[in-house]
Amino acid sequence: MSLSLGEKIFYTIVILAIIASNPPILNLVNEYCKDHPLTWGIPTFWLYLEIIWTIVIVSFVIAAFKIEKWKRIEEKVEEILRKEVR
Amino acid sequence: MSELEAFIGIVILFSWVFLMVIVAWLSTKYRRLSVVDFATTGGTLGLLTLFLTYSATYHSAYAFMGTTGFIHTHGLAAWWDNVHWCVLPAIAFWIIGSRVWVLSKKYGFISYGDYVKGVYGSGGSIATALSIVVALVGFLFVLLYTAIQALGIAYLFNVISRGIITFEIGLVIFILLMVFITWIGGLRAVAWTDTVQGIFMLVAYIIGCAWVASAAFGGIFNVFAEAAQKIPEGLYLPGFKGAFTPQMWVSTWITITLGMIAMPHVWIRYYAGKSLRVIKWAAVFTAAYLTYLYILTPALGLTAKLLYPDHPTPDKLVPILLLEYSPFVFAAFVMAGALAAALSTADSQLHAVSTILTVDIYKPFIKPDADERHLYHIERWFVIALGVVVALISFTRPGLFITILAMATAGTAALFPVLVAPLFWKRVTSKAALASAILGEITVALTTFVWKNPLGISSGAWGVIVSSLVLIIVSMATKLEKSVEECVTYLKAIFGY
After folding, report:
1. Which of these, B353, B456, B431, lies nearest to B111 by C-alpha position?
2. Does the CB of A60 have a partner CB in chain B at under 8 Å?
3. pLDDT tens-digit profile, chain B (497 residues)
């Protein structure tokens, strides 16, 4: 398997987000939410998950801009399709 | 006043219906009379259209009506299990969708079953049997899903028109519109109308949530403060009814995420992009759209629970809240957004099932020598015929169908390993895939109807576990197949893994 560094970072962020938004880590957050249902006036549990997955979405945006390998794949496929059309 | 409101409501509603008819008709300017164009637009959708058709199709009437009902029933914390199936399918759109798109360009796949038949092609009759199983499972669940969308919207028509449009007439209008859009332009008309509807439903829903929360409690922060005082158990797990245990939390998101990715109307969109670049950016925008559509849903859902704590049908609370806490014209506009959410999913589903019937059943088994133009006309007839079937199902409103619908995402989730494995693993075989699909579906049926959610794990997760294990074990015990090996090698040469 040959993942580029950018892909490794992006997929690691996704996996960490899944780990952080599921038990057992989520159980710890849930216990905290029982005592502190709101943070800055917003439901803590919802805010926690919203922040985690916003980080994933922002990472996805950065990955789409920055990962050179994905751009090379796009170019490679374009080239293959052009050849096949010819 | 009530008569004037009814008139305004009907005008808003029919203006929206008329706009959709016009957009669908405009799309026919680019129409080609071939089944490839009808089923996938021939892979010509650009970024805006692909991203909004994927997103609008993905979010159904549930996004507008069901989410508030869910928060009312299980609480805010349990509902935000949703975040998994908002972001992960978008990432899958890139990781899986890009591979499926490449294969569709190489082999000319345009449907659900023909993809399976193609990648497992070396299996011969086993691959054919597999394609039938996959096509029928997708067909059954999606058709019932479409009927349920129609039921929800017929209720909205009735509310907006202050009862002048009866439930039955509302149902007929919705189904006629759905059939017309699909019939006149296939996926292109569906995608064009989805683009308009996707934008409208996002704006209408967010403003609607903000308006109701502000009118009822003076602002969204006040809703949260009130909820923390009066219904704090809704702000953490396991929620109001104690249903969202750790097992249920994990198994629910796994089932819905994988099930939605594997739904035929979602899968078909993988074929429709113009280029890989378009697919990549459509995936990125989809992640943001699917997630932030719900940015103010917590305020609306908690408002519903605080104001109507014991309402017997919480899925109907959105129109009730809008009519109670916003001007009627505004409420009618927002509910037109709900119509957009339901229609954008329903016409996509009708399109997907008619494509399955044409490409996966009619062409290989009834008329193998049919040309593109003949298949195009046949698919349009199937659109009409299936529209009638959807109407018949909706009119009878049978409880059994609702129960089967509960299996929908679970049923397609059990197909996920069969659909995705040949994109990454050359060892997978058609025999293993057939055994996996059949045993996965049997497991889902047993854990839905006989032993309900054993060990607190949802039926869909059991289906995924069994189908994955069967796929791996039987693949290891059977001979390598050339077609799968070729697909994986081809994809590896492009994607690097």
Report:
1. B353
2. yes
3. 578 888 888 898 889 889 999 999 999 998 888 999 999 998 899 999 999 999 999 888 888 888 999 999 999 999 999 999 999 999 999 999 999 999 999 999 999 889 999 999 988 899 999 999 999 998 888 888 888 788 878 888 888 787 888 888 988 999 999 999 999 999 999 999 999 999 999 999 999 999 999 999 999 999 999 999 999 999 999 999 999 999 999 999 999 999 999 999 999 999 999 999 999 999 999 999 999 999 999 999 999 999 999 999 888 899 899 989 999 888 888 888 888 888 888 999 999 999 999 999 999 999 999 999 999 999 999 999 999 999 988 888 766 556 666 678 899 999 999 999 999 999 999 999 999 999 999 999 999 889 888 998 999 999 999 999 999 999 999 999 999 999 999 999 898 87
Closest to A30 measured CA to CA, from B249, B403, B36: B249
CB contact under 8 A, A43 and B284: no
**pTM exceeds 0.90:** yes
Output DSSP code: residue B15: H
**Contact at CB, B277 and A74, closer than 8 angstroms:** yes
Nearest CB partner across the interface for B280, out of A21, A38, A64: A64
Flag if B246 and A64 touch (Cβ within 8 Å): no
Contact predicate B235/B389, CB 8 Å:
no
**Residue A12, exposed/middle/buried by CB under 10 A (0-12, 13-18, 19+)?**
exposed
Beta-bridge partners for B273: B45
**A22 shares contact with chain B (CB less than 8 Å):** yes
Distance CA B412, CA B134 (A): 9
Report the C-alpha gap between B223 and A41 in whole angstroms. 10
Give B314's DSSP letter.
Answer: G
Q: Is it true that the peptide bond before B314 is cis, omega within 30 degrees of 0?
A: no
* B235 to A57: CB separation less than 8 angstroms, yes or no: no
The H or E element containing residue A38 is strand A38-39
Is B495 at the interface with chain A, CB within 8 A? yes
Which two three-digit tokens encode residue B44? 């010509």
ipTM of the complex: 0.94
Pick the residue from chain A with its C-alpha nearest to B238. Answer: A30
Q: Which two tokens stand for residue B138?
A: 């997708």
Q: Cβ of B242 under 8 Å from any chain A Cβ?
A: no
- Distance, in Å, from the CA atom of B394 to the CA atom of B150, rounded to the nearest integer, reads 7
Contact B171, B391 (CB under 8 A): yes
